[in-house]
Every structure is written in C-alpha cells, then in structure tokens.
Design brief:
The protein has 242 residues and is an alpha/beta fold. The chain has helices at residues 40-47, 87-97, 102-110, 131-145, 161-178, 189-195, 229-241, and strands at 2-11, 14-24, 29-33, 55-60, 63-64, 73-75, 150-153, 182-186, 198-203, 208-214. It folds into two domains: 2-72 and 149-241, Rossmann fold; 81-145, no CATH class. The chain has seven helices and ten strands.
C-alpha cells in the first residue's frame, strides 16, 4: 500500500535522514522504532507530503504522491482537537472538508462513537475529556480522514502507564475490526512489540533503517504475552540492535 524509496532529507546543518526504504502492506501495523532525534517525524512529514525529500519518492498504492499532502491521515502526538468545537464536530471535520454536508457528516461520524469508546461525548468539548478520550477522538478523526492508511506519531506517549496500556489493547481491537493499515512511530520497545506486525529500527546520524524485525503469530491479546518468553526474546533482539 505504501512504499518509500531512497528518502533523503538535508537540513542546513547536515543530513537528517538518508536512503530510507520502507513499505507497508494493506492490513499491517508497522512500527518505526528509534531514539528521539533520529529523524522519525521528518520521515513522517515527507510521507504525508508536508515537506519534500531532497532525494527519493513516496508511492501510495503504486501512485507517486511525493509532495502531495492529503492522501493519508497523519495523527501527531498532541490530539490537536479544536477547543471551541464539540467532539462530534471535531471528529466530523474531515468529512466536511471532503464536501459532505455538515448534518450528513455528523450522522456518519456518530455511527463510530460506540465502537471508539466515545458514546455520550458527542456534545462535550475537548477540555471536558481525559487524555485517553481525546486520543480516541483524534484517532477516529484520523480514520475518517483516510481509512486506507494512517500515520500515527507516538499517539499514546503522553498518557499515564495504566491509560496507555488500556489504549493499546483497545487500539489493537479497533485495528482488527476495521482491517486498518498504519505506520506507527514509537520509542517504546514494549509498545512496538505488542502492536506491530513488523518493526523498522532507525538509528545513526543521519538516521537510516538499520534493521527490520518481523514478528510471528503470537497471541498478543493473551494477558500473559508481555511476560512470555517469546516477548522477552523479541525485546532482547531489538535492544541489541538499537
């Protein structure tokens, strides 16, 4: 579904990322794992079309989209919900921007509120919701913007440990129910193992893809998965490569 070929980006003080090659297949969740400052967000800005690479190209379903924004959704770390709009109006914005009349957009968005755990929040404002609930709303808005592919930039990093764990389990279920496809930035090794089908490890200066880890068919919904031998082996393997 998504292919990036030989992506390189220069900044005035040097090269930030160099010769990045990745792909994401339909229905996959692929994580981009690496330390802060390695160029993960820069790569996302290029993939989403917000900035141009100095070398390389981006393809979505075989079509070259380099430098053309609006072809996939991009959810950043902050929820970026409009504080003066209700949650239902915030979530339905992508549909309205696509030309759907407001009443119809609101009705369509409302159909997803139960599954996304937002039922009863339609008329509330962002300031009235917890961090986890705001992230649910932000994720639904991203999904309605582009159900084909979502770029998720550390969406759970600002949440406390218990909320984050709950959101991860919920997110896995939503991904499965809707056959969603996502590329997910994280610097949390445990999160990458739990959520991903594959993991690209970024490292170095400039940032490059140093390794790819393919995860097997473990039952990640098993409550004991995070303490299983398989999980620990993956963690040991990944930490050795970081």
């Amino acid at each position: 579904m998504l292919t990036a070929e030989s992506i390189t980006k220069y900044y005035p003080d040097g090269i930030i990322i160099e010769d990045i090659n990745i792909d994401v297949k339909a229905g996959e969740l692929v994580s981009l794992l690496g330390a802060s400052g390695v160029g993960k967000t820069t790569l996302f800005q290029i993939l989403s079309g917000l900035i141009l690479p100095d070398k390389g190209d981006v393809f979505l379903e075989g079509e070259k989209i380099t430098g053309h924004p609006g072809r996939m959704s991009y959810m950043q770390q902050k929820d970026l919900l409009l504080p003066f709009e209700t949650i239902i109006n915030n979530v339905s914005i992508p549909l309205q921007l696509a030309g759907t009349p407001k009443n119809e957009a609101v009705a369509t968005a409302s159909c997803y509120f139960h599954e996304f755990g937002l039922e009863g929040c339609e008329k509330k404002y962002p300031s009235q919701l917890s961090g986890g609930m705001r992230q649910r709303a932000s994720l639904l808005r991203a999904y309605l913007f582009s159900w084909k592919l979502m770029l998720l930039d550390e969406p759970f990093s600002a949440l406390d440990v218990m909320t984050k764990s709950s959101m991860q389990k919920w997110f896995m279920q939503v991904m499965s129910n809707h056959s969603m496809t996502a590329l997910f930035i994280t610097h949390d090794v445990d999160e990458a193992i739990l959520l991903s089908d594959r993991i690209y490890i970024m490292s170095g200066v400039p940032g490059r893809i140093s390794h790819e880890v393919v995860l097997g068919g473990e039952n990640k919904k098993d409550p004991d998965f995070l303490t299983s031998q398989g999980f620990l082996e993956y963690k040991k393997q990944i930490i050795s490569k970081l």
